[in-house]
Structure formats: C-alpha cells, structure tokens
Amino acid sequence: MRSLLPIALLLCSAAAHADSLLVTDAQGQPLAQAMVTRTPLEVPVADLSDDGYTPDGTSNTAAVTVTRFSDAEGQVDIFQDGKFSYRVRAQGYRDAYLDAPTATVALAPMSDEEHYASYPSNVWLSQLTFGGDQELKQVFQLNCAFCHQQASPFMRNERTVEQWLSVIQRMNTYGARLPTDDQLPIAEMMQSEYRELRENPDQVPLPRRWESHLADIEMTEWPIGDGFSQMHDFLLHPNGYVYVGDNLFDRIYEIDTDTGEYTVYKVPHYEDARLGGILGNRFEVFPKMHNYMGVHSFAVSPSDGNIFITPSMQQALLEFDVTKKEFIIHDMPGGLYPHTIRTDANDDVWFTLALSSQVAKFDRDTREFTLYDLPARSVKEWLMFKALPLLFSIDPEDRPLPSPDRESTGLPMPYGIDVAPDGGIWVARLYANDLAHIDPDSGEVTMIDFPYEGPRRLRADAEGNLWIVAFQNSLLVKYDPRKQEFTDYELPVVNELPYALNVDRKRDVVWVNGNQSDTILGFHIASESWKVYPMPRQRFFTRDIEVSEEDGAIYTSNSHFPTWQTEGAVPTLLRITPLAD
C-alpha cells in the first residue's frame, strides 16, 4: 500500500486543480519550477510585403506567447480556451509538447550529453581560461561578447585557427576593437579550449537552479521582425504602447500589449544617404539590410510625449511625433555615433556621442545642440580626436581602419548616460573605465575614475546613487556621489557579462541584463539580495530594461545578433509581470 501513496496524492492534487497542468518526473513526483509556454496556433496572416517586413504604417498581430512556472506541488495554471500548443521545460529534463490541455505531463530525464548541451552560455564561458591569462580573457569578453552569446552551441563548434581569425577580423569591421596583437593568441585559445570543453563537458559547472519565486510571475512575449532583425532598444511609453527599434532595418514597432497588435513605422532618410550611413555598409555579407540611420536608443519627452531616438549612423537626432506618427530629423553640426539617450525635467535631450567622446544636449525650445567634450587620456588620443573630421571626410569604402590596442586609444567611448534626481548628468566611458558628471547649469565637466572594468550603462536611484554594470568583472556597482564611494556586488550567476540595467525607483530594485546566462537579474537594494528570472527562450541576449511604475512589471527585448542563432530565430519583446494574489 505504501507504493500507492504518491499516486493517490497526485490524483488528489490533480482533482484539486482541474483547470491546471500537473508536471511530474517519470516516477510521478511533482516538479516545481517547470516552465510551461503557451503558443497560439491561429494568428492572422501578417502583411510582410516590404522585403519580408511589415510596410510603413501597416498593422499586424503578433503570435503572443505566455509562460508560467509550476508551484511546489507541480501545478501551473496555463490553459486557455482556443487552439494552442504547450511546451513544458524543466532543468535536466527533456522538453514535452502538448497540442491540447491535459491533466498531467511527465518529463523524461535528459541524457548527460543532452543535459550539458542545455546549459546556458555563461557556464561554458566560465571555463575558458585563455591559458590562465585573465587579462586576455577580459580583453576577449569586452570585444567579443557585446552582440551575442559567446559560448553558445554555435560558437562552440570546431573551427580552424584560420577560421577563427577570419571571424575575428569580420567582427572588428562590425565594431569590435580586438587588439591586433591579441587576435592570433585568442584564435588559438578558442580552438583548443572549446575542443577541450566539448570533449570533457563534465568540467562545466551546473547552471543556477530555478527558484520558487518563479511561480509568482508570468512572462509574455511578442515576436516581431525576423532572423535578420536586431531589436536593439525600446521604450515603455506613458500612452501604454511599447516602441521597439529595429537597428538594422530602420523601423519602429508600436506594440499594443493588450491586443498583440503592432504597427510599423519606417524611419525616413535623405535621398543621398548611403547604406550604413557615415560608417558605410559594414554588413555586406548579409542578404538584406536597411540601416541608413541605425535606430539605437529611445527617450520620451516629459512635455508632449514625443520620442527622441539616436540614429547611430548619422550626425542627427530623430524625433517621432506619437500623435501625428511622423518623424523629424534634427541635423547635428558635429559629433559621431549618437548612442544612449535620456531627457531631463526641462525637456532637454541628452545623449552620448560614442566615437567623438562627447555628450550632446538638444534644447527643444531653440532647437540648438550643445556639445560637451570629454577629456582625452593622452596627447596621442587628443590628436586622434582632432583628426576625426578628416578621417570621416574619406569615403567609407576607402577609410583606413585604425589598429586597436588594449587601451582603445582614440576611443574612450562615452556609452551609458542618465539624469540624476538633482538634474545632474552622469556618463560612463566604456573603454576609459571612468565616469563623467556634467553640471547642466554651468556646463562644468568632472571626471571620476571607475575602479572596475567596462562600465556600460548606468542609472540613478531615488536617492541619487548611481548603479553601473562592470561588464568584464561580472559585477553590479553602486557609486555614492556624496561619499564618493564605490560598492560592488557579485552577480548571482557565474561569468555573466551585464550589458545594462535599470532601477525601479519606486520599489528600490535594480534590474540587470543577464545576456550570457539567459536571465534577468533583480537586486533588491534594502536586503542586498537577488532574484533570478530565466528567459523562456535559449540564447536570449538583452540590452536594456524598462520598468512599469504602475505594477513593477519589467520589459526587455531579445536582441541577439545574429537573431537566427536564438531559439525560435525571431526577436521578441518580453514582459515579466507579477501575478495577482
């Protein structure tokens, strides 16, 4: 009779949850934290007549997916009337697929080989040692892991040293800065160390286990674009829509998250503009491309709700009138590579100029730009800044590419930017490992050394503290401007390379992009504790986060480049929402 007890308990449990799914292992024991994703089987046919994309001003409906996690009893409420398929996933178990609601699904364990293959990229990356040269590994991570996951199954494939060198050189034309002297050693290490890991996968540590808080959230995804798109940044707008930018195809997706309907607006460019803008066409190997402007980062005006967008391939600022659905191009007198953007309480627009080491302010009243120069780190770098106008006067096809060094001389790269509660402007320079503060009243620029590696994006909390990701160090860093003190916090997953973060000022939570580990990481400031949220797709590379002030829901986009390497091969907008009690 004792052997029948678990079965009886399961039957009672199933009866108590008649509208939900019970997930068990092969022996019938409940599986907690199983991920169940619901996908619609019937979606209106999309108009994709513009080279496989939605034409300007046209609306389509996304195939919205919903993901929930089972509770401690293995139960998950996921079924809905209509035609759906269901995928059931749990760590260490083979996926199961359902084409109709059922009371129970039992998952079979993975083989050792299947289990290793299911690990996210970060745990594989943690075992690349580069022959014990930690500095070389950091150089590699800084330059080779900001567009895609580095140790994914695709990247772990066998390649010759020559093939790795070819990949590295092509990535440098895309925007990486891997030093010339490091390219051959890294190619050799990639070949030998990936081979060692493939032959001895037991060396790779287990990923972090999924935890009980997952039963309290729901994930929703809106697939948009295709395998060539790059949904870089986005904006949660006060009007209720989410606006997502396709960096490689100069399109803005306006998504109604209530209905799943989205409308696409094609960003205009001047008739004489060339593909790739002032940088030239760096993606000639791609079968299709439409990045004349290079839609990058978004900010909303506090006065009229218009959206300001940095077009990284032009010396300009874009404005999108959300009422008229029209774009305005504001030509800029100087500066190169408009990057991350914010607006302040005075309705001024601030953004970094990544290549020219400047910060720009756009005054909406006068429609004038003010450029703030950030200091060079050496005389050589100062001379390189001065030579930029001459360099960019040369046709992109003939323009010489500089030979990068480990210090990225000539490219300190102002990257992230934010407006503090007191109105001060803070900037992180990625390759210079420093911060800049701009007093918006006096224009005074103050530089502060950042004692970590790779400050990308930063945000200020409600108290005026800065939160910064240290990319190569796998750290979250707080800077208190009053005490002029830094505090670092280890991330809860190994060898993560955090791209960006955002601060929920109302709830005092810092949300960090876990782009190598297929996660979003929530740091609760008061308790200094973490909660980790696995993504519903593998190879989910995220670059930004938006927070709903109303309910604390967070949004991110799958921006893996190339997108076809991600599970499902389509970029998505993702929302993680707390479930109602």
From TrEMBL:
Select a single GO molecular function from the record's annotations and give it.
Answer: lyase activity
Secretion signal span: 1-18
Keyword field = Lyase, Signal
Instruction: Extract the InterPro entries matched here.
Output: Cyt_c-like_dom_sf (IPR036909), Vgb (IPR051344), WD40/YVTN_repeat-like_dom_sf (IPR015943)
Keyword Lyase attached: yes
- This protein's name: Lyase
Q: Which species is this record about?
A: Halioglobus japonicus
What taxonomic ancestry is recorded?
Bacteria, Pseudomonadati, Pseudomonadota, Gammaproteobacteria, Cellvibrionales
